Structure formats: C-alpha cells, structure tokens
Model the fold of this input.
Amino acid sequence: MNVVNDSPRRRELIRVAAQLFVQEGFDRTTVRMLAQEMGIKSGSLFHHFRDKQEILCAVIEEGTHNALVIAREALEQCDGGAEARLHAMARAHLETLLTDRNAHVVALYEWRRLDEPSRDHLGHLRDAYEQLWQDVIGDALEAGLIRGDKFLVSRFVLGALNWTVRWYDPAGAYSPDALASELIGMLGAPTAATA
Done:
C-alpha cells in the first residue's frame, strides 16, 4: 500500500476527505458525502481508492509525510545548537498545523479508526517523526536546557503542541514563531528573547 502520489485529482480528494473527517468524523463521513463534495459520482472515488479506509490512510499518510518534511527542513536550516533545534522543531510542528491542519487533526483523532494493515503501513512515518523529537529533546536534556525523562518530556511537548489545534488563532496575539518560543520557554529552555 503506497497511498502518496502526485495525481492532482487524488490530492484534491485527500484534501476534501480530511476536511469532512474533521467536520463529521470518520465514522459519519460516507463515500456519497465525499463524492458529492467533489462533484463526482460515488463510483468514481474507487478509481483512486479501494475503500474509505484507504482514504483515511491516505489523509494521515500525506499529513504525516508533510510534517516530517517540514521538520527535517527546519532542522537543516537552523544553526545546529540544542536550543535552536528545539525551537525549530516546535516552530515546524506549528507550521504543520497551519499549513495542513485538517490532515493533522485527522491523524490525531482518527488514528484509532485505521485498520491494522494501515497502522502497520503508517507506523514508520509516525516513528520517524517521533524519533526526530526524541533526538532533539535528548540534545536539549544533554545541554541542560531542560530536565526530565526524555520519553515523558517528548510526550508532554507533543501533547502541548498538538492541543494548539483546538485553540490557536493565527490572527491572534502570537505568531507561530512567538508561540514556539513561549512554549519552549515554559520548559525552561532560554528563548531568543531571553537569551
């Protein structure tokens, strides 16, 4: 199963599906609703996907793949120090939420709806993303920027960042960069404003 491809129509289907899964939930979203939203016949969806489960897998795969690309690019562009890497990862995570919010929300809240083959297929992407965080948190712990258990700190940070999908307003008081600095600052890491 390789659900990432460059077909513009398929990508549009994935985008529409992500939106409907967020609005209606995976269980309540029907193939008919997806087709209606796309302005096509229900049977046309099956030209791109075997079933609704594969659509869910495609939404999560594309979102997770994009998050991984954004995070890796952010780490490549920072100066390489532990503080810069921690901030770059937080900023990249928030950027993912802004650029691909629906897919991210679906990955967070509908992962449990994936069947076992889909979870097995997507596990390597999720593990790769979490490993980036483990490495960055490990570097920050080693540098004395933060303290605690690497696994627990990683879960705490990701949980806080993921929760922003519920309340963060890009037009509000904090830019993504400022929000990343504030959140990382709460861990005890110095921020550009305090360093």
